Amino acid sequence: MRISSDLDLVRAREQGRxxxxxxxxxxxxxxxxxxxISELARNIVRYARRGEIVLRQAEDGGVPGIVIIARDEGPxxxxxxxxxxxxxxxxxxxxxxxxxxxxxxxKFEIVSEVNRGTVVTVTKWKR
Amino acid sequence: xxxxxxxxxSFLIASIQSALTDTDLVQLRDALVGQVGSYRSRGVxxxxxxxxxxxxxxxxxxxxxxxxxxxxxxxxxxxGIQPEVAFTMVRLGLTLEGVATALDLEEGLFYLDQKLxxxxxxx
Lengths: 127, 123
Description:
- The structure holds two protein chains of two kinds.
- Chain A is an alpha+beta fold.
- Chain A is about 40% helix and about 30% strand.
- Chain A has a single domain, classed as Heat Shock Protein 90 (2-Layer Sandwich), CATH 3.30.565.10.
- Chain A has helices at about 5-20, 25-50, 80-85, 95-105; strands spanning about 1-5, 50-60, 65-70, 105-115, 115-125.
- Chain A starts with a strand and ends with a strand.
- Chain B has a single domain (about 5-120), classed as STAS domain (Transcription Regulator spoIIAA), CATH 3.30.750.
- Helix content of chain B is about 50%, strand content about 20%.
- Chain B contains four helices and five strands.
- Chain B has a five-stranded mixed beta sheet, with helices on both faces.
- Chain B is globular and about 40 Å long.
- The interface of A and B includes residues 86 and 104 of A.
């Protein structure tokens, strides 16, 4: 899914909700997934202007999960460790974006390179 | 998509009907902050029952809305936060600090009525 406007953001979280629903996630977890997508997609629009969100199904020992990949070719994050600290923000946001997403997902990976872009990959398993 | 704003007595009621973009939400904030003046409203209710996501941006915008409305001399109450949404907000640490909330529209109206009554008594 291409992400370049706040309308794309709404669409992306709806698609995430649909996929997680098909995998049998609980109502609470559907909301967690949709909210994580919302935060990741907003970071794309805000910092990189455009990028993409890819949603994938995953499986671990028979347990289904959803993988959300948020990818952009934006400015990148100079200090990823600092960006993961609660309260950190460079665009006047709440600074809860990435640490918050890590808290509500089961697995969180971030690769970022200055002037090359950022890829955030998160996974939520069905409970 | 613009959110309809109803005027009921000295209150404004914004009833969100579907998912909102960030732009829609900011427009709603500005419309309410403006209309508090044009209608001389004493209270604002924002019904978010239809929202299935309240992320950091939405929380901050609602908090800003409530604080801006208070600076204009009126009170805001957010009503209808769904259980799953509340769960997610707590996990994310989004507390809507300093913002009044109520279960639904009815409770929100009750809250504002009480609030206005107590202000009148104080005055």
